[in-house]
Amino acid sequence: MKKIILALSLALTMTVSSAFAEGKSIPARALASFKTEFSEAQEINWSTGDDYYVAKFVLHGQNIFAYYTPDGDYLSTLRYISTLQLPINLLRELKNDYSNYWVSNLIEVGNSDGTTYYVTLENADKKITLKSKNSGYWDSYSKKQKA
Questions:
Q1: Which of 31, 66, 84, 85 has a Cα at 20 to 30 A from 138?
Q2: Where residue 100 sits, what CATH number does that domain have?
Q3: Phi-psi region of 13 (alpha: psi -120 to 50; beta: other; left: phi over 0)
Q4: 74, 91, 114 — which closes off a domain?
Q5: Are the CB atoms for 54 and 22 separated by under 8 Å?
Q6: CA gap 39, 17 in Å, rounded
Q7: What CA–CA distance (Å, rounded) separates 136 from 105?
């Protein structure tokens, strides 16, 4: 009996603590939307920005971030991916046109406008970031010379 009470108390504590982020309560609409969209999510942690709420969680072994407005409306999801998760045409373009660079960061952002990929490529002299909207092709997003 004590184990059951302890387990229920722990579950309640985890539920209540995940509904608050840095002292701010998460809008009920955001919590409901999140629970509907990501019902299998685990290890959920909420945080806040000036004009958004973000749920960081694990889903099917991947770390994902879901962003919501202060009114609780869904904005987007973000996840770090490997090159193997890119659409074939984007992967091929990276291999053909940027073979002298290595991938240091690769992000997939999904929202109502579709899916956008951001890849940061580096070599000894440069760091460039490319963007692809809806799996079309890569566009230059930023370029920096290394010091």
A1: 66
A2: 3.10.450
A3: alpha
A4: 74
A5: no
A6: 17
A7: 19
Q: Name beta bridge partners: 108.
A: 79, 117
The pLDDT tens digits of the residues spanning 1-20 come to 333 333 333 333 344 444 44
Q: What is the mean pLDDT of the chain?
A: 85
For residues 22 and 13, the model is more confident at 22
Q: Are 34 and 45 in contact (CB under 8 A)?
A: no
**Residue 67 φ/ψ region, left for φ over 0, alpha for ψ in the -120 to 50 degree band, beta for the rest:** beta
Query: What is the number of structural domains in the chain?
Result: 2
pLDDT at 50 over 80: yes
Domain of 51 in residue numbering reads as 2-74
Residues 66 and 128 in one domain: no
